[in-house]
Amino acid sequence: MNTVATTGPTTSAAQQPTLSLRNGVTIPQLGLGVFRTPSGAETRRVVRDAIACGYRHIDTARVYGNEADVAEGIRESGVVRGDVFVTTKIWNDDQGYDQTLRAFDGSLARMRFDYVDLLLLHWPVPQKRLQSWRALEKLQKEGRARAIGVSNFMPHHLRELLAHCTQPPSVNQVELSPYLQQRDVCTLCNEDGIVVEAYSPLTKGARLTHPGLVRIAADVGKSPAQVLIRWGIQKRLVVLPKSTRPERLAENFQALQFHLSEEHIATLDSFEEGLVTGWDPRKAP
Ligand SMILES: NC(=O)c1ccc[n+]([C@@H]2O[C@H](COP(=O)([O-])OP(=O)(O)OC[C@H]3O[C@@H](n4cnc5c(N)ncnc54)[C@H](OP(=O)(O)O)[C@@H]3O)[C@@H](O)[C@H]2O)c1
Predict the structure, then answer these.
(1) In the chain, N or C terminus with fewer CB closer than 10 Å?
(2) Phi then psi for 85, rounded to 5 degrees?
(3) Cβ distance 222 to 194 under 8 Å?
(4) What is the pLDDT of residues 169-203, one digit of tens each?
(5) CATH says 18-205+236-244 is which class?
(6) In whole angstroms, what separates CA 256 from the centre of its chain?
(7) Using alpha carbons only, what angle is made at residue 32 by residues 77 and 51, rounded to the nearest 5 degrees?
(8) What is the pTM of this model?
(9) Is a pLDDT exceeding 50 seen at residue 1?
(10) Where in the chain are the domains?
(11) What one-character-per-residue DSSP string does 111-139 give?
């Protein structure tokens, strides 16, 4: 089994920062994203390496095609299931009440788990999302999903859901970085007790050489990726960087070990430019 060497004092799995979801479930603020992590031995190795670094939170999805290997990697790592927070998501083709329930059975069967820690609707599918949400409420009630939430929900999607749901979402996972701060989404989520998760927090690499970011990184003696992750942690977001490389898994995890000054945070805040690197749900009806 590969392990990852880290140098200097390290943040242990137990010491890492967490947030409390509305139903009291605790979520580690730093999670490993596995979108485009190839399924099979590669995903299992990445998950083992990440757990060896200290990660205790993995963000997968049915559509990533690697749920089974994420779960197997956790088993191979030797940590107990209850020590790792696992998220999966209901893909668009699977939305609707009955379809969502069936899709979730499929996810649990692939993972050979009794429950997931967080189950998200991957996208606000028109005409189906409210029915899909009812299915998530049922799964949470049954304890098969410890917490439920949404992804790519913009303010108009969230308002509609909040007006119709019995259980409000615990989480909204959206693309978020200093270059796309989603302030309107965050304001609404904060008002309604919804934790915001930042996906593509490293801008998929698109801004890692941005001069302003590089200057801050040099100032604090950290890498640009670590500064982006740290900014999200200090904003009280859940941050989900993806890497398959052992040295970057360790580098990214070490973003838990330093602090950005208020001045640096304010400079990062000034980088807003509406940069969308993935899909853009703003115009989704
Ligand atoms: N809900 C949604 O709709 C949605 C959409 C997109 C993403 N997500 C979630 O968010 C996670 C992260 O987003 P993402 O994968 O789009 O992008 P990201 O985390 O912003 O960036 C990943 C890219 O950065 C590279 N990288 C990682 N660490 C680095 C470092 N320290 N220095 C330089 N480059 C580094 C990775 O390459 P290597 O792997 O080669 O290191 C990869 O190319 C996903 O894996 C997924 O779990 C959710």
Answers:
(1) C
(2) -90, 120
(3) no
(4) 999 999 999 999 999 999 999 999 999 999 999 99
(5) alpha beta
(6) 16
(7) 20
(8) 0.96
(9) no
(10) 18-205+236-244
(11) HT-S-EEEEEESS--TTTHHHHHHHHHHH
